[in-house]
Amino acid sequence: MEPLYLGLDASTQSLKASLLSENLDVRAECAIHFDTDLPQYKTKGGVIFGENGEVYSPVMMLVEAFDLLFDKIKQRKWDVASIKGVAGSGQQHASVYWSQQASSLLSNLDPKTRLADQLSPAFSRSIVPNWQDSSTSKECQDFQSTVGGPVALAKITGSRAHERFTGPQILRFKRNHPETYRETSRISLVSSAITTILCSDGEVKGIDESDACGMNLWNVQGRHWEQSLLDLIGEDAGAKLGEVETDAGKVVGHIGKWFVDRYGFSPECAVFPGTGDNPATFLSLTLAPSEGLVSLGTSDVVLVSTSRYFPNPESHAFFHPARGANDSPSYFNMIVYKNGSLARQHVRDLYFDKSWDKFNAAVESLRPQAVTDLPNKAAFWWLLPDIVPHNAHGVYKYITDPSAGLFEIGAAQKVDTFPDVSSEALAILESQLFNYRSRSSTILDDSDTPGEPSTASLPDNIPRLTRVYATGGASANRTILSLMADVLSAKVCKNVEFYDNKWKDADWNACSVGVAYKARWGYERSQGREITFDDLVAQCRNNRAKLRGQEGGAISLEEEGIRVVAEPGEGARAYERRVDWWRALEHKALSEMSK
Ligand code: ADP
Ligand code: XUL
Question: Model pTM?
Answer without folding.
Answer: 0.91
